[in-house]
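Hi there,

I know you've been waiting on this one. I reran it after we fixed the sequence typo, so this is the corrected version. Both the input and the resulting structure follow.
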Amino acid sequence: MELDPNMSLTVKNLNNDSTFLLEFAPTTCFPPSPGRGPGTFTILLDPWLSGPSTIYHPAFAVAHKTTISSISSLADIPEPDIVLISQNKPDHCHEETLRQLPGDSSSKTQIFAEPGAAKRIRRWKHFDPDHIHALERFDVRKADSVLRIPIPASSPYGRAGEVTITFIPAKFDISGLHNAIGITYRPPSSAQMFAPAFSFDLPLTPPDSPRSHSPSTSTASTLVAGPMREKTMSLIYSPHGVSYPHIRPYAESHLVQEAALPLTLLLHSFDRVENPWYLGGNISAGSPGGLEIAQSLLAKTWISAHDEEKRNGGIAVKSTYTKRYSADDVQRMLGGGKQVSGPVKASPQTEVVTMDVGQVLRMTV
C-alpha cells in the first residue's frame, strides 16, 4: 500500500561546494505559508561564502572559490536552528563567513562542530560559549553519543518530533579529513496518530567486492514502522568520504531503530582527490568511496558535495591529482554494481544529482 508522504527535506546549494541549507518539515507545512511552519527544523552545513581558505600560510595552501555564492551574507537567510561544522579546515570552518551569524546569547542558532573546529571557533570569542558544542564520536555502546534534539508537538495532544545528529570519524585518520555526520528527522504531530504498519527488507552489509567470488554473508533486516515507530528521514553528509565499515555500526543500530532506511539523502563528493603520502595521501574519496555507502544503505538520492573546481595555490597542492566524475559517470557506476544478496524485495535506484549554485531540491517521505 502506498502511503502519503508526511515529511519533506528541502536542500539549497548556497556555494556550489559543501555549503547546504537543509530544511526538514512536516508536509502539512506545504505549500509554504508566510513564516515558518510548526515542526520545521533548519541546518546549515559548513558555511563558506567568499574570501580565501588558507591553511597555515598562503605559501603552504590557499584556495579561492571560482563560483559566486547564491547569497552574499548569512544575514540573507533566516537564522538556522543549527550550524554543523564537519572539520576544522577553513574551507569548512570559515571564520569570515561564520562571523556573519549573530554571536550574542539572544541568537537561537546552536553550533555543533567537530572537536577541533569547536576549539577553533571558541578562540574567536565571537559566539556565546554556551552556543558552541563539540560533537562526540559515535560509539555504539554509548547511547548518549547520538545527539537528540526534541521538536515540540504542534498541539497539546500531539507527539514531539526529534532530530538526531551523529559524528562518525574515521579511525587513525591523521589528516582529520575523513568523517561522516548522520542526521535523522522525525516530525512532530498535532495529535496522537497511529501509522499503518509496513515492512521492507534492507541489506545492512555491503556487496561482495567485484574481485571476490566467495559467497556473500550479507543478511537483510526487516524494518517495521508501526504505532511506536514511524518512518524517519535520514541523511549522511561526508564531503571527504569515509569507508562504509565506519558507518555500518551506526546504520545497523541507530538507523534501524529509527526506521530511517532506505537512506533519504547522501551528500558525498563525486571527485577523487589525492596527494602524495607525505602530504596526507587521499584527500577526497570521491564516488569510488561513496558507492559502497549508497549501495549498502539504498540511498534514494546522492548529491555531489565539495566538488567545486577551486583556484588553488601553495606547495601543499603542487602534486595534487584530481579524478573528476560527472553525475552520469556515478549513475553508470551504481548501475553496474553487484547487487547485495539476501531476501531483498526491492532495490530502489539512486538518483544522482549535481546541483547548481542556488538550486533547490525537495524530497519527501
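Quick highlight: Residues 293 and 341 are 16 Å apart (CA to CA).

Best,
R. S.
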